[in-house]
Amino acid sequence: TQLLEQSPQFLSIQEGENLTVYCNSSSVFSSLQWYRQEPGEGPVLLVTVVTGGEVKKLKRLTFQFGDARKDSSLHITAAQPGDTGLYLCAGAPGNQFYFGTGTSLTVIP
Amino acid sequence: DTAVSQTPKYLVTQMGNDKSIKCEQNLGHDTMYWYKQDSKKFLKIMFSYNNKELIINETVPNRFSPKSPDKAHLNLHINSLELGDSAVYFCASSLRSGSGSNIQYFGAGTRLSVL
Questions:
Q1: Is B85 helix (H, G, I), strand (E, B) or coil?
Q2: What residues of B are in contact with residue A46 (Cβ under 8 Å)?
Q3: Residues facing residue B75 across a β-bridge
Q4: pLDDT tens for each residue of A33-67
Q5: Taking CB atoms and an 8 Å limit, are A88 and B108 in contact across chains?
Q6: Chain A, window 31-90: residues with a beta carbon less than 8 angstroms from a chain B beta carbon
Q7: B19 and B83 in contact (C-beta within 8 Å)?
Q8: Which of B42, B56, B104 sits opposite A102 (nearest CB)?
């Protein structure tokens, strides 16, 4: 069992569709981060959420931190092929940093 | 200039060999990390160094030995390579340690294939 479980594991959608990726845990986090990793590259930070219930928007991406600070979601509106990649949530319940199990997104033109 | 650079990008070797992966960051960060990403894309921390001192050492075989000659460099040496060591290894750095809101900057990865 991993500390941060993401769902779905794989997602293949048509350009223009909306999607939501979930990141769940039984632990409480002081903050959660979302990264995107493209093939052949390392993960790149998209956002950090720190307050329970917080919602952050980054263009077509909307990130939410659960009220209890145990879960987070990433919603993409009108997905584009450039959104294709591996999405990873990450957090540190203590000093140790953990990544989620990952969601591989493919947006078909 | 690449912020976090690691070499080589690809490493193909035989079982039983010893190999090293080098990592350098030019961001002036205090903390550096090594991660292993398996075939299912799961990214797991292996080691973390803060100002050349080891602060995180996950359950990793002692065939893996990190070395930090200065805070800008964190190298990974692997002895007696095994088939299960095949993976992509990522180096990362952050301004400091001990906070879940630290931004980590990753290198492009080293794809290790053990034959």
A1: helix
A2: none
A3: B67
A4: 999 999 999 999 999 998 999 999 999 999 999 99
A5: no
A6: 31-33, 37, 40-45, 48, 50, 86, 88, 90
A7: no
A8: B42
A13: its two tokens: 């959608």
Q: Do A45 and B104 touch (CB under 8 A)?
A: yes
Contacts of B48 in chain A (CB under 8 A): 97
**Torsion over CA: B113, B40, A74, A81 (sign):** positive
Report helix, strand or coil for A63: strand
Tokens for A65, please give them: 């931190």
- What is d(CA A69, CA A92) in angstroms, rounded to the nearest whole number? 12
Which residue type, as a one-letter code, is found at position B5? S
A9 CB-side CA count, 13 A: 5
CB B19 within 8 A of CB B4: no
The answer to whether A93 and A100 are in contact (CB under 8 A) is: no
Give me the pLDDT at residue A95, please: 67
Provide the token pair at A1: 């069992």
Cβ distance B97 to B32 under 8 Å?
A: no
* Chain B hits for A40, Cβ within 8 Å: 108-109
Question: What is the tens place of the pLDDT at every residue in A65-82?
Answer: 999 999 999 999 999 999
